[in-house]
Amino acid sequence: MVILKKFKDARNTCNNKIRQAKTGYYHQYFKTNSGNPKEIWKSINELMSRNAKSDEISHLTCNDRVISDSADLTECFNNHFAEIGLKLKPDEPDELNNCLGDYLKQADTVFTLDLTTPSTVFKLLSSLQEGKAMGLDEIPAKLLKCARQ
């Protein structure tokens, strides 16, 4: 029993020292990089294990078949997100389609959007800088650049 107590005391002391060292390191790191938000977020993401494992999805099982073609992957994702509402609430399709009006107010002004070409969209997506913050849609630039194909 004496050996077990000594082991636990040594383990706890070691864990406390490691915790103190990590705290001191990150305190100094954040203090040093206080003017560099990119480095701060890089460190936060490392601490929270939010590092991307892969840049793109290579294959996916959709309708009991494995697909790897980018067009088929896109179609599979599109179908999934287009149909998820009806799958979650199959008894209320009209409610799902009509509930949007509950959140919208009638606008006093009218505006139009100019037509755009796929090449214009491709150029704009290609010019996005991956290291910048997300927009209001909260879609990372890296994902948009990956989806442009």
Structure, described:
With 149 residues, the protein is mainly alpha-helical. 58% of the residues lie in helices and 4% in strands. It is built from 7 helices and 2 strands. It has helices spanning 2-32, 37-47, 70-88, 93-98, 100-103, 118-126, 141-147, and strands at residues 60-62, 65-67. The chain has a two-stranded antiparallel ribbon. The N and C termini lie far apart (65 Å). The model has no long low-confidence stretch (mean pLDDT 82).
* SSE pattern, N- to C-terminal: HHEEHHHHH
Q: How confident overall, as mean pLDDT?
A: 82
Strand content: under 5%
Helix content: 55-70%
Strand order of the largest sheet: 1-2
Helix segment tally: 7
- Classify the secondary structure makeup into a structural class: mainly alpha
Q: Uncertain segments of ≥5 residues (pLDDT<50)?
A: none
Biggest beta sheet attributes = 2 strands, antiparallel
Which geometry do the CA atoms define?
A: elongated
Radius of gyration: 25 Å
Cα separation of the termini: 65 Å
- Tally of strands: 2
